[in-house]
Amino acid sequence: MAPTSAFVTPSTLAKETTLKDGYIIDERDKAKVAHNEFSDDIPVISLAGIDEEHPGGRREAILKKVVEACEEWGIFQLVDHGIDVELINEMTKYTKEFFALPDEEKLKYEMSPGKHKGGFLISSHLTGEAVANWRELVLFFTYPVQGRDYSRWPSKPEQWKAMVEAYGENMMNLSCKMFELLSEGLGLDKDAYAKSMGDISQHLVVNHYPKCPQPELAVGLKRHTDPSSITLLLQDHVGGLQATKDGGKTWVTVRPIKNALVLNLGDHAYFMSNGRFKSADHQAIVNSIETRTSIAVFMNPAQDAKVYPLNVKEGEKAVLEEPITYAEMNNRHKNRYLEIVRLKKLAKEENWSQEELDLKLSQLN
Ligand SMILES: O=C(O)CCC(=O)C(=O)O
Ligand SMILES: [Fe+2]
């Protein structure tokens, strides 16, 4: 049976010449910079020599660069990270094969949020979005291992499952190295940061942004911060990931670097560092020339882990009044995002000025 119109994927809609209504964004959300107008402002950090811990060894210099990038941007690219290129190639290959399958096959794994632990989605897992994202995705819950529901992992292409497992494991190991650097950067013991996270959880979001008939009217993934502690993103050569460090005034398109991983910090890192590290403000835009894929690995603390700055310096105010659980932090993050969506919709319907909208947005906590 053909999928109902509500479940026509962007891959199928890409064959039309005009963009469907539900995907048309507001004038004020239009991208300021093109998907392929690449910037070199985002730091690129090599992890070569990260284990040279002696005074004056490479680790010191790497740590310094990581801390600076976390403070200025909350986003940077990692090269010489030690992940096998073969694994990256295979993961990319099977990802592309999956999204090339017919809608019927992909929709077999359609996920109902709250009901299914993982699967295929169009646009987002959130209900209440005013405008859809021009994206399809597959969500895999990978850690803790006992939380995996393999029945939600697509069985085509056949090798994908094993690749996701291996990729998740490699990203877990790399993330643990990065948590050590964040910890040291905050002036703490190497293992303090990861310890505060409890049983670390991980999920993968494999994003697919088909070519779009009217890309200037659509967005691949709306502006957001991730709730995670860190996110490791593998993007292909196309480009479309954009970040801002000044609240949306200026944007940069992250230059794709073959086999590099883009590391961005999420809200958890912002809170744990008492606001010293930025939670990267970012979005993904689309184009009419090439389909784009990206693989995001979200590293999160356990749901019941305590979220509160690890060290509040004398004379400093804590960014949180009291400790909350990660579940609560995540909930607030989601509600805040949906409140922004609601205000923007209202602003459009009631013709608010930019100043009026900005004022309302600044009043959100
Ligand atoms: O596809 C991208 O470049 C960004 C993806 C992203 O930000 C996310 O999945 O949270
Ligand atoms: Fe993101």
TrEMBL record:
The keyword Oxidoreductase applies. This is Fe2OG dioxygenase domain-containing protein. GO terms for biological process: flavonoid biosynthetic process. It comes from the Eukaryota. Keywords: Flavonoid biosynthesis, Iron, Metal-binding, Oxidoreductase, Vitamin C. The lineage of its organism: Eukaryota, Viridiplantae, Streptophyta, Embryophyta, Tracheophyta. Belongs to the iron/ascorbate-dependent oxidoreductase family. Its cofactor is L-ascorbate. Residues 199-301 form the Fe2OG dioxygenase domain. Pathway: Secondary metabolite biosynthesis; flavonoid biosynthesis. The gene is LOC110733452. InterPro entries: DIOX_N (IPR026992), IPNS-like_FE2OG_OXY (IPR044861), IPNS-like_sf (IPR027443), Oxoglu/Fe-dep_dioxygenase_dom (IPR005123), Plant_2OG-oxidoreductases (IPR050295). GO terms for molecular function: L-ascorbic acid binding; metal ion binding; oxidoreductase activity.
